[in-house]
Amino acid sequence: MIYIILCLILCGVVFYKSTIYKRHRRSLWNKHVAITGGSSGIGKAFAILAAKEGAHVTLLARNVDRLEEARNEIKQNTVTQDQIISKVPVDVSCPEAVENNLLEIEETIGPVYMLVNCAGFAVCGKLEDLSERDIKALVDVNLMGTIYAIRAVLPKFKKRREGIIVMTSSAVGLMGMFGYSVYSACKFALRGLAESLVMELKPYNVTVTLALPPDTDTPGFENENKSKPKETKLMSESGGLYKPEVVAKQLLEDALKGNFFSYVGLESFILTTLCVGMTSVNSVLELLLQICLLGPLRLIGTYYIKNFEKIVAKCFSENHVQEK
Ligand SMILES: NC(=O)C1=CN([C@@H]2O[C@H](COP(=O)(O)OP(=O)(O)OC[C@H]3O[C@@H](n4cnc5c(N)ncnc54)[C@H](OP(=O)(O)O)[C@@H]3O)[C@@H](O)[C@H]2O)C=CC1
Ligand SMILES: CCCCCCCCCCCCCCCC(=O)[C@@H](N)CO
């Protein structure tokens, strides 16, 4: 009882404090923001917000037509005449191309201040149903693509003693899920990358933010739904479906404040708190909240996991009946 009361008081204090005590929010005014995957979905929504903040924005993606279309849309959201919105056709899974193109745009527009890694995609399906080609592409784009882009800007970030790195993982970068095996593995890997980089970059005043979105209503999501197993659909629904603008807005705020995790929604809050692990501590209040919540949240998590297991069992027996 005392424990519950203590938790409630703490939640109240944290909520109250969070409204009056805001972490310093850096400005993007006249800064250069490079966004991989900036021509669609979450990346494009982020680009629009960055343009509204007065940033110069460079979009990196493969398809030239979609890049041009997005560039026009983003141009309409600029707040000054001098903002440069440019596009670079590049495949992030090619390290030389990423490095050369980033070098080139830095020469024309100026040093990148913020790198947002949004290029990525999901292919769902049971592991044995994924083609070797899909598996390789998932790793090459979601994981390697992020590594290559970061490597290309990092030395300059360190030299200038400033910079913001954003990586887009996923809710399934914190928990495995039926049908997401390889995709989830890539997104888990990003967390290891992000945590290590936080340690490497702290002395250089460079921050790292890891986005953990649940399902988000984007062209990519629409595409992935075509091959999504029933089990995956039923489970992922419990995380809700968010608009890319909402995910991008939260991500921008977290990145500007240097928060490590960025998430939206109650389920993702539960998941993120439960999976806090060995990430660095942001504030004493946050730490106290985690100390109180971790135990009870394991119980709530168990409820979800049991439900997920039920879904798997139900679909299994349905398929079994069909086979017969
Ligand atoms: N939508 C969702 O439900 C969720 C998405 N995420 C993650 O968020 C990120 C963005 O997803 P979302 O907005 O839905 O995706 P979209 O498919 O809408 O957009 C993906 C963007 O990445 C670009 N891209 C894809 N492959 C490459 C490549 N090899 N090289 C360069 N650019 C590439 C695409 O352009 P082009 O094809 O022209 O190259 C496009 O601009 C992904 O990493 C995804 O895994 C995470 C959680 C949930
Ligand atoms: C322990 C407490 C548990 C709380 C419940 C957690 C429910 C989370 C649901 C996660 C949904 C996963 C969406 C994957 C998104 C994604 O990456 C793809 N759509 C990519 O395009």
From TrEMBL:
Superkingdom classification of source: Eukaryota
EC number: 1.1.1.102
Membrane-crossing segments per the record: 164-183
Catalytic activity field: sphinganine + NADP(+) = 3-oxosphinganine + NADPH + H(+)
Keywords: Endoplasmic reticulum, Lipid metabolism, Membrane, NADP, Oxidoreductase, Sphingolipid metabolism, Transmembrane, Transmembrane helix
Predominant place of localization: endoplasmic reticulum
Gene3D superfamilies: NAD(P)-binding Rossmann-like Domain
Pathway: Sphingolipid metabolism; Lipid metabolism; sphingolipid metabolism
A Pfam family annotated for this UniProt entry: adh_short
Record localization: Endoplasmic reticulum
A GO MF term: 3-dehydrosphinganine reductase activity
SUPFAM superfamilies per record: NAD(P)-binding Rossmann-fold domains
UniProt keyword Nucleus present: no
Keyword Zinc-finger assigned: no
One Gene Ontology biological process: 3-keto-sphinganine metabolic process
GO cellular component: endoplasmic reticulum membrane
Task of the protein: Catalyzes the reduction of 3'-oxosphinganine (3-ketodihydrosphingosine/KDS) to sphinganine (dihydrosphingosine/DHS), the second step of de novo sphingolipid biosynthesis.
Homology family: Belongs to the short-chain dehydrogenases/reductases (SDR) family.
PANTHER family linked to this entry: 3-KETODIHYDROSPHINGOSINE REDUCTASE
The protein, known as: 3-dehydrosphinganine reductase
Species of origin: Sitophilus oryzae (Rice weevil)
